[in-house]
Design goal:
This protein is α+β, with helices and mostly antiparallel strands and about 450 residues long. Helix content is about 25%, strand content about 25%.
């Protein structure tokens, strides 16, 4: 069974110790939400909330400084404790992005500036928000938006390209582990489908996490940040903006254990497995590179700044995972084959879909574990690892070339590929047989 199949057939309850826990579902007009998804390629409520938050940020005031960055000018609107982080800046190149970078999609009623501060929304800020959008700045809409995000994922699975990749150290785990330490992410690659879903399988064909890490003892977000079971991408604006959704458990929701979330939730509380973010290409240059997955963890008693840095690290990880997975399943020397699900499964899934959706995806199995490329580099040195040479835009006068703002030229997309011998471990850079890893050159 595919993870996508399990999620679509799952009921809205969980059972533990003979007790049944039911999600509190707020009614939404499913057909209307799905219509909005078709037009916006994002949950419409998320878009409304983002616009409301952008109006709130505008109330603080910002201007472009000499470096092209946005510096807050109305500092009197900020609490005094915000000044201990230095000069306040929102480092993004245009005001349309400020709302998205200034707010984590899952964080209500607060903005984040400089990637490390939280600022409460004041009455003065709320006064600048149109009345029709004010409700999106309250906690009352959080459950409603949660339902919309679930509908977004179901719509994505039912109408996109579904990719099952090899799991484990030679598969997705190894690939996603290899990018810690930072890769240059400056472009969003073109996608074969406007909606894509990724999940992993073991040798027996059972679903397994795409990525997993052992959280340090005491980390309150260990369950959320330590496992990636599935990931979806919606191409909001080709080459410019993606909506990304991470599924952090193998169910839509999970039950809190003692100590989860630093004790903020009573044991047995039902928590969502989904994390939704939108990322624009103009933000990629200012996203922090991932030094190590240690940056993901947050601990009880830490400052808002430390928690905000953890949130930023996870958001960066989501973007990096999404780009690498998209590059991997489309790489020119990676084996992939289209598969057909049994007719019975097809009917079951069609009946389970909301709002009149039809089950129309294309399903592929991708063999990452066996992906091989040149065992030598251009100088003739033998490689002892495998790594991805990421896709990139190349300037071209070809008829099918398209204008790329970051290159300021017409370009064609050069598909990524794998380099390195069969069965070798994954690394984010080249490592050579005749050299010790710490001496290796040729970083990619």
């Amino acid at each position: 069974m595919m993870l996508a199949e399990k999620l679509l057939l799952e009921k809205d309850d969980l059972e533990r110790d003979g007790r049944r826990y039911v999600k509190r579902i707020m009614p939404v007009a499913e057909a209307q939400v799905i219509k909005g998804l078709e037009a916006l390629r994002e949950p419409p409520g998320i878009v409304h909330r983002r616009r409301a938050r952008m109006y709130a940020i505008d109330a603080l005031g910002y201007v472009t400084d000499s470096t092209g960055q946005y510096a807050l000018t109305n500092v009197g609107a900020l609490p005094p404790e915000m000044f201990d982080t230095g000069k306040l800046k929102i480092d993004v190149p245009d005001p349309d992005v400020v709302g998205r970078l200034g707010f984590a999609e899952g964080t209500p009623n607060r903005i984040a500036g400089g990637g490390a501060m939280h600022v409460p929304i004041t009455p003065e800020m709320a006064a600048k928000v149109p009345p029709s959008l004010l409700r999106y700045l309250t906690d009352e809409t959080e459950h409603e938006l949660g339902v919309e995000v679930e509908l977004f994922l179901k719509h994505l699975m039912a109408t996109g390209g579904l990719y099952r990749v090899d799991g484990g150290e030679l598969g997705a785990q190894g690939v996603l582990d290899s990018i810690w330490g930072g890769l240059p992410f400056t472009e969003l690659p073109p996608l074969p489908y406007p909606r894509m879903w990724f999940e992993a399988r073991d040798e027996a064909g059972n679903y397994v996490p795409l990525w997993r890490a052992d959280a340090p003892e005491g980390a309150w977000n260990g369950k959320d940040a330590g496992t990636l079971w599935g990931m979806g991408i919606s191409e909001v604006d080709p080459g410019r903006a993606w909506a990304i959704i991470a599924v952090r458990q193998e169910n839509w929701a999970y039950l809190a254990d003692t100590g989860d979330d630093g004790g903020r939730w009573p044991e047995g509380s039902m928590l969502t497995s989904l994390r939704y973010e939108r990322v624009d290409v103009s933000e990629m240059a200012v996203l922090d590179s991932m030094i190590s997955h240690d940056a993901l963890w947050a601990f009880p008693g830490e400052s808002d700044r430390a928690n905000a840095l953890s949130e930023q690290a996870y958001r960066t990880a989501m973007l990096s995972w999404a780009v690498v997975l998209a590059d991997m399943v489309t790489a020119r020397n990676v084996d992939r084959r289209e598969v057909a699900l049994p007719r019975k499964t097809h009917k079951q899934l069609s009946r389970s879909l909301p709002g009149g959706l039809r089950w129309t995806p294309r399903v592929y199995e991708v063999s990452i574990a066996t992906a091989t490329g040149d065992a030598m580099d251009e100088t003739g040195r033998s490689l002892s690892v495998r790594f991805m040479v990421r896709g990139h835009w190349r300037k071209s006068f070809a008829e099918h070339a398209r204008w790329i703002d970051s290159k300021e030229a017409f370009c064609v997309w050069v598909t990524g590929h794998v380099k390195g011998p069969a069965g070798a471990p994954w690394k984010g850079r080249a490592v050579y047989v005749e050299q010790k890893p710490e001496q290796a050159k040729g970083t990619r």
